[in-house]
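Respiratory burst oxidase homolog protein D-like (Ziziphus jujuba var. spinosa), 717 aa
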Amino acid sequence: MNKESKEFAGELFRSLARKHNISGDSIDKAQLKQFWIQISDESFDSRLQTFFDMVDKDADGRITEEEVREIISLSASANKLSNIQKQADEYAALIMEELDPEKVGYIMVQNLETLLLQAPNQSVRITDSRILSQMLSQKLKPTQENNPLRRCYEKGKYFLMDNWQRVWVIMLWLGIVGGLFAYKFIQYRHKAAFDVMGYCVCVAKGGAETLKFNMALILLPVCRNTITWLRNKTKLGLAVPFDDNLNFHKVIAVGIAVGVGLHAGAHLTCDFPRLLHATEEEYEPMKPYFGEEQPQNYWWFVKGVEGVTGIIMVVLMAIAFTLATPWFRRNKLNLPGPLKKLTGFNAFWYSHHLFVIVYTLLIVHGIYLYLTKTWYQKTTWMYLAVPVGLYACERLIRAFRSSIKPVKMLKVAVYPGNVLALHMTKPQGFRYKSGQYMFVNCAAVSPFEWHPFSITSSPGDDYLSVHIRTLGDWTGQLKTVFSEVCQPSAAGKSGLLRADLQGGSNPVFPKILIDGPYGAPAQDYKKYEVVLLVGLGIGATPMVSIVKDIINNMQHNEEDYEAADPSSSHNNKNRTSKFRTRKAYYYWVTREQGSFDWFKGIMNEVAEMDEKGVIELHNYCTSVYEEGDARSALIAMLQSLHHAKNGVDVVSGTRVKSHFAKPNWRQVYKRIALQHPNARVGVFYCGAPAPIKELGKLASDFSHKTSTKFEFHKENF
């Protein structure tokens, strides 16, 4: 229990003690039972009386403005709502104004009951949930299957239905890798080397062939410009899961590790020892490859070009692979001070550049092959030529494009929760889709580091914007260098710190370079008539761009419709093909009240412009206890009163009313399934990995059990 909850519990104990005429700081078991009966009674009257007793500290049956202010402050503190705590005086005055119109200086329990009944009631939500469940159960397909074989068949069928794109790509890859291994294995099974080194040489050469293929293939999933072009300009996205490019990159890395183990392991532990111990007669066919004189020790193999290049490559790959694992890359290991630099994105980024050396050595290693003399049989360079050339061109394009398309900073703001918002000019010809991302470089922090961030502006805006949360060294330093040119925000302006080029202060911003845009899963939202957008914390960034884009597209469609001939079916068809989305559900879940400041202006803009209710906005603040909890009862009451009077939510500070605690995702899916039967719903998620499994499983379950098909997509960088 945290400090705020302890304070709240203390007030609750004192109010119950006053009610039961108990003095002192302790109670016996009988009194504890009485307390528990009252606290656990979920009826409205009981909750109301308990709450009133907490506020009415002098037990005179009346609540003064000072007592209201104190309980607002306590309740806000327990729910980590610092903004409400700062404005406790204002909100106390609001409640007294509403319930004490005659200004007698106090309110009674009857007045409080009237106000609380205006707030959303948890029992109503539970009733609605039950009705939803009953309605949905009537439409669910029967899922209970007693036959275990039938159950396995159904699971397998659903798995293939959900993952057929991934399955065929992985099967094709495994087929090619297996075929290459078998080809070399059989080839060396019929060579003279087999008589000396046996099946070990077959395994080593088979592993080497898979290594050549995988070392070439692993570059393709990180050719971002090529992938973005393919997903934007071709129909390959229907069959190829471009969203899984980084996952496939990791799968190939595992294949490389296996290939290295087979190739190096077979050579070092089997081939070389057998060659050293071969008889003169057995060694005779090996003289063209290893010399007239038979090697006498292990060092002979290690000191050669093949041995040196091979060992260096294994060491460098081991370093890069290790530092790329989630434990190192995401700082999950608690290493001592000097070793801290081995963790984090920087270690991953710079260690991956060791592969420049690895690929150079791989080509050299492929030229000085054991058991191969003719040039056309040395195929390493043939495998690598196209992928390495393509990847090199991509890196050159990035450097060239970022240098010829400079951006000028327009506005910078620092928000609560360590978030930095950068607004910059849009380079000429920079065309992007909502949901896409770009790389950002700041030479003042590091001239060589590029980091990806979702674009939060919409394609219709005349500027570019990104919102960056401080999570590591680079983002921390970026916030520091921009904070130095900022000033505290003026009244009416958002953010803790702010610098605006149009503000007259002429700030000198650090230079920013951008590279992009690059394709991302969320850019495909236009393929769906219904979309569910879920952002966790800073993961709301791509969703904000989509929400703005939906509004802009709906407005443009209406303008086109009014300007076009209504009788023309061709025009109607064009409008339909350009933009399909007709309904969007946006869920933003954050822990801190201050996070709502990040996109306050955008939320208000959407709420004002969305006259037809195309977008349902749902903000969730998880620091607030769920509805029905005594610690959040006053917040719910205050929220309803303030929103009804001023149209502004006390939690988010926007026109969008906030919910408490975490969303019930099953209920969210249920409601969408009922409201959109026979529809394809695109579910797009960006944020921490924790909810991915639940959201993906629910999408699969409801797709199989209802007529609504949910297609789940998550962001990968």
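The chain is about 55% helix and 10% strand. The CA atoms of residues 289 and 371 lie 6 Å apart. ok done for today
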